[in-house]
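Q: Structure tokens for this one, please.
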Amino acid sequence: MAGDLPPPLTQADFIQFDPAQAALGHSLFYDTVLSGNRNISCAHCHHPDLGTGDGLSLGIGEGGQGLGPERTPGTGADRVRKRIPRNAPGLWNLGARDLTVMFHDGRLSISDIYGNGFNSPAEEWLPTGFNSLLAAQAVFPLVAQFEMAGNPGENEVIGAVHDRMDNAWPILAKRVRTTGDYGPRFVAAFDHITAPEEVTIVEIANALAAFMAVEWTSFDSPFDQYLAGDSSALTPDQQAGMALFYGDAGCSTCHAGALMSDQEFHALGLPAFGPGRTRVFDPYARDVGRMSESNRLEDAYAFRTPMLRNVALTAPYGHNGAWPTLEAAVRHHLTPQAARETWTRADAALPEIPWLAAVDFVIQNDRLEMARQAAVVPGDTRVLEARQISQIVAFLESLTGSTVDTPPFGVPAWFQP
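A: Here is the predicted structure, written as tokens:
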């Protein structure tokens, strides 16, 4: 029998957003107008056909072409200059009222430290008026060089970013409100706006958040039906996996509560590769995780616990997408030291980029850095039988919503990846 199960999620657990604003955000999410060079949209890295991710360990951002595992890195002067340092997370249930922190390292959180409601990379320069944590999050990929902004010298957006991050947002806002029918649509969707000239990055972010929350709120999985009282919703193997998850396997220690995340940070010792999300004084490819935000040594290599609804759709797994399957990810959680020894470079979903190949695994040649990372790998304390691991995987598959393929909006017909 499983230990204490979480309460079922209900619509009351989620922020209610305006439908007209969500419809506006739907258009913006799939539109390249928000990128510096007008060549990438939010959907290129967060597509519903790929579980609202991109199917890659580390994404191919600004300058790339195509979608998902078939995405190519571009050619000539417009080609990508760096892989995205971390895995593109899924977008499920990000409109939950109880969410307090976002990004793998938690660099965005609800806080009054800067007087604008958030602790964020923009610090005191983040504007006020966001309708949610999700809306505040939405403005940062727009000004990230390798994600959406582009490279220095290519456009005015990235030029403004290198002056100061918040200088780019008015440029993007003007571009949006003067493109197509966006201006009149904002006037119609937001009561406090009487003319397109009043549209700012805040309204744009609020529309994006409304769309993402409405489109990808999901709590109608077999597990959710079980929590609501339908004891027949889970198969025997799924129930056995649930008992392990909430019992001897210890999964719910971190994947706790109704959202299945403690919203805390833990070092799992995932195999290291890729360019890393570095600080100015880091070796080029290092990623210290939560410590990059907190500057506390005890946070080294720790990353945020993800929520798990629809996790079967969001491979690969981990902050850098190290593991290609749920089974591999579960095995790593149970026996991280042993799992690290079985990992190979072929496990990483990294489309070939010849001019970046020298960087992809360079961190593994840094003896001292590898020793530092190895020192925080948890011990192998939960050895389970193969059948038990399969049962846990079956339970995780029961977290897939029954209506994920029929969202309110869907992919617009005009979207061209």
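A few notes: The mean pLDDT is 96. The CA atoms of residues 129 and 202 lie 6 Å apart.
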